[in-house]
Amino acid sequence: MVAVLLCGAAMVSPRRALAQEAPVRPGNNPLAARGFNELYNMDYAAALRDFSRLRAEHPGDPFPENYLLAAEIFQELNRIGALDTEVYSSDSFLDSKPVRPLDPAAQRRIHTLIDDVMSHCNQRLARNPNDVDALYARGVAQGFRSTYMGMAEKRWLTAVRSALAARRDHERVLEIDPHYVDAKMTVGIHNYIIGSLNWAGRAAVALVGVTGNKQKGLEYLREVSRSGSTSANDAAMALSLFLRREQLYPEALALVGGISRQYPRNFLLAVEYAHLLNAAGHGREAIAQYRVVLQNGREGKYTYFHLETAAWGLGVSLRGQREFAAAAEAFDQVAMVKDADPALVQRALLSGGEMYDTLGQRGAALERYRRAMAINGEGEVAGEARRNMKRPWHFSEQHGTV
Asked: Tell me: the pLDDT tens digits for 127-148?
């Protein structure tokens, strides 16, 4: 989820507007506003068309270029299965392969767009090193480079370097103009992440002059999310992920619920709301929400729909409420989805087998354990399936959350 570095245009102060034309942003351009609505509703094709037109109408402005870059990156991340929060449920995502291979043509477009933004920003900064709009746009592009290289290309070292460069640019923006609220999003994210590291981790990053503070990070993100600026929704989504980690569920639920209602065709927001309900201990409400999501998906109400994600969450929630037969059925749904992530299918088969063991249906349980091991005979999931083959599994309360 690091998918939170969606691009954001800045609020432009009066003194900068006098010196140069204000950058294009949703607040001053209807086409940009429409493109963002399409982007947040996961209608990437429409967003790409509108942002391409916007870029053509404003050549040399790095803001429309970053909007187009956002649509390209998130279309590709969605296609390869990298936007599902289940992907990041453990540290294995650091070396896991995408569900689908990268599209070389999309890869070229993304890197070309990043280079174009960087070039235009650097030209402006050569003329005026204190051009805050150029600094901000360059930081956004470097944040996108970090997101894509990490989540798609798995080039984590390069991704970290780009993320640090983005932070430096946005810290410089805030030095020049403390009211440039959008720049606080990247700085807030970094403050929280680095502030969450253990002592050894914080000491290591301090060697390169980077520090962090969790509370400062959360407050920065709250400020941006409440600002009404272009980055408000992005900051709210980042904030909700961190609030979930801190078990501050009521605030996280309010944020995700509000954004989901604003963008009803976004499946990922709807299913994340259900995940949050379950994590917060509202198992019955989570079950109801997952079922609404599944029904909406079957009725075509989402631009993209991943049945396996909602069915997995439903199974976990039902298991937590001790509805073992219904949970087994939900896990079986995951395993039947064509082209689903093999790792998720393997987990669903293991979990389904455990439900059948709990129900005393040993034959059905063994069949699912065998199928799970056939997907990948190595690793933790296969090891658990192998142990369950030797003796029936028994439910414990620790298996109640996503």
From this structure: 999 999 999 999 999 999 999 9
What is the CB neighbour count within 10 angstroms for residue 27?
14
Q: Measuring CA to CA, how many Å separate 22 from each of 17, 70, 234, 275, 290?
A: 5, 20, 21, 40, 43
Position of tokens 């460069």?
165
- What is the rounded CA–CA span in Å between residue 5 and residue 322? 38
The alpha helices in 13-103, defined as continuous H runs, are 14-19, 30-40, 44-57, 62-79
First to last CA, the chain: 16
- Report in angstroms the alpha-carbon separations of 123 from 57, 59, 62, 136, 315: 20, 14, 11, 14, 53
Selected residue with higher pLDDT from 233 and 395: 233
- Give the C-alpha separation, 150 to 2, whole Å: 9
Please give the Cα distance from 267 to 272 (Å, whole number).
Answer: 8
> Among residues 85, 159, 106, which one has the least CA distance to residue 341?
85
What are the two backbone dihedrals, phi and then psi, of residue 103, each rounded to the nearest 5 degrees?
Answer: -90, 115
For the chain, the domains span: 1-174
